[in-house]
Amino acid sequence: MKFKDIKTKTKLYGGFFSMIMIILIIGIISFLGIQNIGKSFKYVGQKTIKGVGFISIMEADLEKLMSGYYRLLDPLLNHEDRQDILSEIAEFRKSYRKAVEDYSNLSLKAEEERVFQQFLSEVDAWRLVNTQKIDPVHNEFLQKDLLNPIQLKQELLSIASVLKEVRLNSQTNSDISEYRKMSESLHFRFIDEFETGNSIVSPLLTALKNQVHVFDGAFKEYILNIEQGRRNDASRIYNNVMLPEMEKINQTLLLIVPEVDESIALYNQLNHLMVNESGVLHKKTRATLAQMVGMSIEASDEQLRKGDMIAISSNSSLMVAIAIGVVLALVLSYMITKVITNGLRRGGLLADLVSKGDLTVTFDNDLMVQKDEIGDLARALQFMVNKLRDVITNVNVGAANIVVASEQMNAASQQMSQGANEQASSAEQVSASMEEMAANISQNTHNAKETEKIAIGVSEGIKNVSVSALESLNSIRNIADKISIISEISRQTNILALNAAVEAANAGVHGKGFAVVAAEVRKLAETSKIAADEIVQLASRSVDVTEKAGLLMSKLIPEVEKTTALIQEIASASIEQNSGANQVNSAIQQLNQVTQQNASSSETLATSSEELSSQAEQMKDHISFFKVN
C-alpha cells in the first residue's frame, strides 16, 4: 500500500505513535543510564563512603583509645582522672567494635575482606597487649597509689642530699649563707601536698614530714646560734636534735624509697609496653586502616569511573536516539504535511475555478484514486461539480423549453383571441336574427293569415338559428378545450418553475438569480392558470346557455311545424315566442360579453407568454455564467 493511500487518521496516529515511541526509547535510555549511574553512586554511597566512614570511626576511636593510654602516663593525674580515662577507653573500645561490626556487614571484595581480617587480627593482638599487659600493670600501679613516683623519689633524694650537705658543712664550718640555702632547700611542697593510700608509704611519709619539720626547726635554731656566735649551743642542738633526726629521716627514706622504686618500675614498665608493644601494634593497625581506606577510595574511584563511562555511553545513546527521533519526526511531518496540503491546495484551486463559473474542471486521476480522506474529499468535490454541471445543463434545457412553450402558448392565445372575436361577431348576428324573429312574431299576432307563411319562414329561420346555435356551441366547446390546454400549459409551467427553483436552491449562491426568474415564471403561470380557469367557467356557462337555446329551438321547430294546425293559438304562442326570443336575446348578449372577455383574457395570456419568454431568456443569460462544456 502506498503512503498516500493510508488514511489521514492512521498517518497522524502513526506519526504521533512514532514520536511517542521515540520519546519512550529516549526515556528508557535515560532511565537505564541514570539507574546504572545511580547504582554506581549507590555503591559509592552505601558501601564505599559508608566503609570509609566506618573505617574513620574505627581509626578515630583507636587513636583516642591510644591517646587515652598515653594519657595514663601523665604523673600529675589523680585517681579520678585515671578512672575517667579508663571509662573513655572502654567507650572508645565499644564504639570501634560497633564500627567493626557495621563494616563487616558491608559487601566486601576478596582483597578488602583479606585486609579487614588482617586488621581484626592486628586489633585483637593490640587489644591483648592493652588488656592483658598494660591494664594489669596499670592496675598494680594504681594499687601502689604512688601516682608520681619519679618526682616523689627526686624530692626524697633531695632531702637525703640536703641532710648530707648539712652533715658535711657542719664539719667544715661553712659560711652561714650556705646554711641558709640548705634550710630553704628543706621546704618540699610536693611532699607536703602528696597524698597516697599506700598502707606502707602513707605512714612513713607522715613520719617523714614530721621528722623533716623537727629537723628544719632545729636547723633554723642551729643557724641562729651560729649567727649570734653561740657555737656551743649550736653544737649542742646539732648533736642532740639534728643528728638523731637525720638518722630517723634516713631510716624513713630507706623504707620509703624501695616502695617508690617499685612504683617507678611499674611506671617504666607501663611506658615501655605502651611505646614498644602497644604503640607498635597501634601503628600497624593504623597502616592497615590506611590500606583499607585506600582500597575503599580506589573502589570508589573505580565506581565513579564506571559511572562516568555509563554516563558517557548513555549520553551517546541518548544523542543518537534524539538524532534519529528528530530525523524521523522531520521525515514523517514532511510526508504527512505534503500529502495533506497537496490535496487541500488542489481542492482549493478547483473550488476557486468553480466559484468563477468553470464547471468543466476535474481532479487529477492520482488524487481521485487516493484512498485516504484527501481522496474522499477530492471525489466528493468532483461529484459535486458533476452534479452541479448536470443541474445547470438541465436548467438551461428547461429554460429553452420554457421559451418554446411560451412562444407556443402565445400563438395559441392569439388564435383563441381571433376565435373569440369571430364568436362575438356570430353572437351579434344571432342577436340581430333574434330581434328580427321577435319582430316577425309580433307581426304574426297582427296577421293571422300570414301565419302559415311566417311559420314556414320562422321554421326555416329557427332551423338556421338551431344550426348557428350548434355551431356556436361547438365553438364554445372548442374555446373551452383550448382554454383547458392553456390551463395545462400553465400547470406544467408552474411545475417547471418549481423544479427550476429547487435546482437554483441546490446551486447555492450561483442560482439566486435563476431562483428569482423561476419564482416570477411560477407567478405568471399561476396567474395564467387562474385566468384560464375563469374562462373555462364562463365557457361552461355559455355552453349551458347555448344548450338551453338549442333545446328551446328543438322544441320550437315542432311548434312551428304545427303552426298551421294551431292558428288559433298563434297569438298566445307568439306572445310566448316573443318572451322566449327576449330570453334568447339576453342569453346571446351574455354570450357576447363572455366572448369579449375571452378575447381580453387571450390577449392577456399572450402578453404573459411574451413576458415568460423574456424571463426565460434572462434565466438563460444568468445560467450562461457557468461553463459546462
Describe this structure in words.
The structure is a single chain. By secondary structure, the chain is mostly helical. The chain has a domain at 390-623: Helix Hairpins (Orthogonal Bundle). Helices cover 88% and strands 0% of the residues. The protein has 13 helices and no strands. The protein has helices spanning 8-71, 79-104, 110-144, 149-172, 176-185, 189-193, 201-227, 231-355, 365-368, 373-446, 451-507, 512-561, 570-623. Helix 1 packs antiparallel against helix 2 (79-104), helix 4 (149-172) runs antiparallel to helix 5 (176-185) and helix 5 (176-185) runs antiparallel to helix 7 (201-227). The mean pLDDT is 79.
SSE layout:
Layout: H1 8-71, H2 79-104, H3 110-144, H4 149-172, H5 176-185, H6 189-193, H7 201-227, H8 231-355, H9 365-368, H10 373-446, H11 451-507, H12 512-561, H13 570-623
Helix pairs in contact: 1-2, 1-8, 3-8, 4-5, 4-8, 5-7, 7-8, 8-10, 10-11, 10-13, 11-12, 12-13
